[in-house]
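Continuing the batch. This is chain 6 of the set; chains 1 through 5 are on the previous pages. Same settings as before, nothing changed between runs. Recording input and output for traceability.
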Amino acid sequence: MNENLIEAFCEYLLINKGLSQNSIKAYCFDIKSFAHFLQKSLLEAKTEDFLHFLEQFANARTKNRKLASLNSFYNFCAKFDFGSIKINIPSSKVQASLPLFLEHETIMQAVDAIKIKNWLSLRDKALILFLYATGVRVSEAIALQREDISSDGWVKVRFAKGAKERIVPIAKKAKETLEEYLRAREDKQSTLFINYQKKPLSRISVFKITKKYLGISPHVLRHSYATALILGGADLRVVQELLGHSSLITTQIYTHIKEEKLKNTLLSFHPLAK
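Output for chain 6:
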């Protein structure tokens, strides 16, 4: 019974919710873990079962993720009349942490230091500039096709999180480097970023590239993109649209970076702060 319910839930997340494979795996892993802990039908769970399960996790973020998975699963069960269990457990409070980002100068110094030996090193340079210039997720970048880049400097992100489509502009320098990389490839492969075997680049490969030249994960470039826009005075809702965030709350974390930078500037330069 549990296996059938979990399988139906996974299909629901894929077809109805349009979640990414990674998100679906995370949700379903959490429900399978709870089912293993429960040792009975998922539809027989009680409040104390949820509490005892969540007590295993000391980290507040982990606990909240497990709780979100449970809520999603039982909402699914209620929607399709499998059961009517309600989980009335509040999320744990998590201290907000500012996203890690790199300054523009740091990124450009690293990019300019890349020694171009062949189309692969040119790809690395184009990829880093592309991620920084567009703010797309790694999963979105590796799914892009040549046809998704328009001649007038726009990127169609067709495989966005939650199956949403959006259009984002690409800066001139990044577009020029991308075009140089594509010319150097001399192949007809439609995928935008490929490996030495001319196959689509993997998430791990992208991570290795940004780690090699910048010492960070590729997601930090997305944070750097958003931070640069906010510090430059961009409207928060515009940044939300460019990043593909479904909620403005997710984007608001970047305003804290601006506030922190203003505070540090004051402490560094105002005479009364010394």
